[in-house]
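Two proteins, back to back. First:
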Amino acid sequence: MAKKFHVLASVLALSVSVTALSACGGNNNGGSAAPSGSASSSASASAGASTEKDTITMLLPPVSANYQSKFDQMAADFNALYPNLTLKIEPAGWEDITQKLDTQVNAGSPPDIAFIGSDGISKYMDQGMLMDITDSVTPEMLADYDEAPLNYMKRGDGLYGFPAYMSIQSIGGNKEMLEAAGVDWKNVQQNGWTFEEFRDAIKKGTVTEGGKTRYGFVFAVSGVTAKDYLNIMIKNAGMPAAFTQDLKFAYTSKNYLEVLKGIRQLIDDGSMPKELSSIDAGKRWNMFLTGQTMITGKGLATFENSAKQNNAKLEAKDASAVADSIPVEYVVLPMPTFAGQPPVSQAAVDGYVTFRGKKEPTPEHKANVVKAAYFMASGKVMAETNSELFVGQITKSAKEAAASLGGDRDPDNMAAVDVLQAHAAPARPDIPADLGAKVIKLEDEVIVPKFQALLAGETTPEEMYEAVKKAAIEEFGADGVVQD
């Protein structure tokens, strides 16, 4: 899911409910000066233009620090562009959006649009509650998008919404500590490192003084975040997706076991805390800012901005700075690779996914939902949001709108993110929804619990591997899994 900037943004979640007002005109969606010239307005023509009043409902989390505080303005701008249309936005926190959405889906009355991760599409598609917008989206809208992130919103021949961003999930380090440990971080940013090189680096970065240990590496793994750690690692071991190109379940590969062994080694080396299984996303970031770890994960581009903001507070002696924190220069780093496999970055593509209720939506309402989803996922709205997140813009209209916003990104980090994005795992719209849903079930019921037990020292890599393999064969059949 959509989980990507959740740690920092969740603290800033606001309780806002929105209905449309009036307003600020057509800087969004490619800079159109009026509705008639916008790509969004073309959607109406493609489905039969209508001036009848309509309301589009949305369920939206705190995507960025100031995102939810702009709901009134977003609704006003949309209403100014389409006077007959109203946005009704229900805010949610990252902690409860899945529960809220599932409750509404199970009741047969989901919102028209929800902001979720593209990996959740299979789940709701399997329940028959997603709306394919292929016949309502316009060529102008499609042409606005970078192809790679747009493909994440597809399953088979269907398109189920618009992406907001493609964010690479990796790791990040403290520049001063990396240099003290002898890590050539600029070379690593551009050329990567093997697991053996990474393991050696974090050993050197682990320091014990006065009975206190500063760890070489900490990753948030409490609860569902355990899945993030494992999924990011295994992509760099020849398993860029849960299924191979011939749709065999990939996590029964021998390389999966090698990753499990490696992850356990990092704890046994003392380079990661023995109590790692209890560290959540908030605690790992606190540990990074207070100098208790050299490298942290998962790392997001927005963390550079967060570290800079805390540094500024420290310099100003602002009491709201993180308690006991130190100045930190955040360095974007790639994950290590395993078994001679090429680097593959985990791309988190979240966005505005389109839902339907029990009844078939009218063509007019469908076209209106498309207009609303595109409005939110492009132009000024997305430019401002992605600039806050320090992630790249993925539409031409947002890139144009972002040009006047400025920014303060480290050039080495920007170049590192470009390398990570070049290695991003490609979308797999060819994976059938039912297989995708089975993987989610397998992760929830077997992989995550076993992985948490592995991190806690309650099971071995071999035992976990055999449990995953057994469950996978039961789910997909012996011929439906990789046996190497």
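And the second protein:
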Amino acid sequence: MQPFSYAKVLSQAAAIATIKQDKTAEFIAGGTDLLGLIKDGVQVANTLIDINSLPLGDIEFQTHGIRIGAICRLSDVAFHPQIQECYPVITQALLQSASPQLRNMATVGGNLLQRVRCSYFRNPVFTCNKRTPGRGCAAISGYNRMHAIFGASEHCIAVHPSDLAVALTVLDAVICIQSAEKIRRISIHDFYLLPGETPQTENLLQPGELIVAIEIPDFAYKSHYLKVRDRASYEFALVSVAIALQIEQNIIKSARIAFGGVAPKPWRAWEVEEFLKGKAINKATFTAAAELAIQQAKPQTDNEFKIELVKRVLIRGLSTSCRG
């Protein structure tokens, strides 16, 4: 493991000033992803800036929604009584993430910024355009069972690993980012980027910026998170779905749907949402929605099964949401 320096900061201004002075520095809070990347030689950080003392650990219910500090631990968010009541999709997503031990350490901001779990990215022996742009993507010609069927490119087919990000996508969350000059508020829909020709750029966070909070607007929908994986715990999604519905008299008035495990970012199913508006709650509606959901799918050699899995996960998720 490479040697690195350690700096503990007590204010946001000091954190941002420190990282601006050292372009190879990285912020660290829980460190559950970053330290593994450094140990594997995938990511270089000459200085780790400890932000655990910053006042970013509160969960605040406000007039028009909720604000979650970036260094809130995942377990604290998952078991917060008001989040469990008002935003069950968040609790469900978090309790299906990682392990209890990791949830006690990992932070909200770190979870949203975790790097892809593609084994070719995390093993420097293989070529990877995320690590070294222009070298090629070993996953495309390799074993790609866990990889994307939506939104990929010829340069990268990795999927985003965060369950929380999928849940926040159906909640239309906003990511608050602090720099030395200003605070930016970016919709989660815009924050994550598709790989295109630049897979090394995964989001809109700029050097010298720090995620300080997540803001979620008022939410009057029924919500549910469903995750399918190879084993019942401590595993990343093959396919997951976050669903939020407004229902009146057995009619879907409005729907929000996002998939995980299938794309380089949480995959919002806009066409399916539009189709479901005004539809009756029945098997025919759910089946038609599922067929629409996979229209853009482009599977790889080893993951064509995800097409059928997307359909089944959506039908089950809609059925559960409507009963809830």
